[in-house]
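Please, does this match?
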Amino acid sequence: MNNVEKAKLFAVLFPEQLEEILERIAQAYQYLSLNEDNFRGSRVNGLFTFDFWYGNAEEVNDQIILYGSRLARDSTLFSEKLFKGKHALFTTDCIYKHAKGSTSRKYKQAVELFFG
């Protein structure tokens, strides 16, 4: 399965998590925006330049602004807009971090299985 297909299945299995995931993504983008000067010139997760990561985060956030709550109601829209190409990198990172704070063992295991 590719990232879009995995994300679609994930969204079908955990629709109750999608609003929180969208909020987590928006918060992560806001954090990067507020701390842009501190991060500029550094690497994220040791792999990506900040400029690449921030640009990717901005594109994902733009999709959330454009499609809003429809992303949480439509698994196809959610998967195609947030997991296509390089968008999957930032979105997956946000989901993984969101799952760490979850109390649902089933949800955490699914995140690890789909995106770990």
The first helix runs from residue 3 to 13.
